[in-house]
Design a protein that fits this description.
The chain is mainly α and 204 residues long. It is built from eleven helices and no strands.
């Protein structure tokens, strides 16, 4: 392929990515204003300033745009967790949970809607992303080192942490807790898990 053709292909690829990003930002704005169910091809096209047919080229139905935004949120959650964890320092569970909470409430209306759209991902054969395996293993070791878990129960405690963590997020996303209450609860997550671990051991 000649250098001119390569350049044209590269420009076309960039334009496709930019158009898709523009459509997703338009969809996100509509969700912030009127919710997920307000999305239509016509509304997205009007908000993005493009022809309706352009939206169909990228998303066969509005749900595909929601799924794409939800996938993006999953990546941001994972990256926030991983970056915060790898920053080092004491109490990684408290540090990472606070970082994720701060990120989520920074665009509260949109992120609540997208978090509750996770079933759409599953219905389309996709799944939310999670912290990378290396950091999950490291978190397990940190739980053991801090006394939150015994070596023999590290994996079980990770499951408990995950259930508790996502339970708090779900409670926030469904409106059962405010942004302030959610951030406070995430800040207490490490101490709450410590109490759960102590109670669990006492019952054995």
């Amino acid at each position: 392929m000649s250098s001119r053709k390569v350049a044209r292909v590269e420009r076309a690829t960039v334009e496709l990515r930019e158009t898709r990003a523009n459509l997703l930002e338009a969809a996100a704005k509509l969700i912030r204003i009127s919710g997920v169910h307000s999305l239509t091809h016509t509304a997205i096209a009007a908000e993005a300033g493009v022809a309706r047919q352009s939206v169909y080229r990228y998303f066969k139905d509005p749900e595909e745009a929601v799924v794409a935004l939800a996938e993006n949120l999953g990546v941001v959650i994972r990256d926030t967790f991983n970056t915060s964890f790898e920053d080092g320092g004491p109490d990684p569970l408290a540090r990472t949970s606070k970082a994720v909470a701060s990120m989520l409430v920074s665009d509260s209306v949109l992120n609540k809607a997208l978090y509750l759209s996770a079933p759409l991902l599953i219905a389309q054969g996709k799944s939310p992303v999670f912290p990378n395996e290396k950091n999950e293993e490291a978190l397990g070791r940190q739980l053991e080192a801090s006394g939150l878990a015994e070596p023999s129960e590290g994996t079980d405690m990770l499951d408990i942490v995950g259930t508790y963590f996502y339970g708090l997020v779900y409670k926030w996303a469904t409106g059962s807790s405010s942004d302030k209450e959610f951030c406070a609860a995430m800040g207490r997550l490490a101490s709450d898990i410590a109490e759960l671990a102590a109670g669990r051991r006492a019952s054995l």
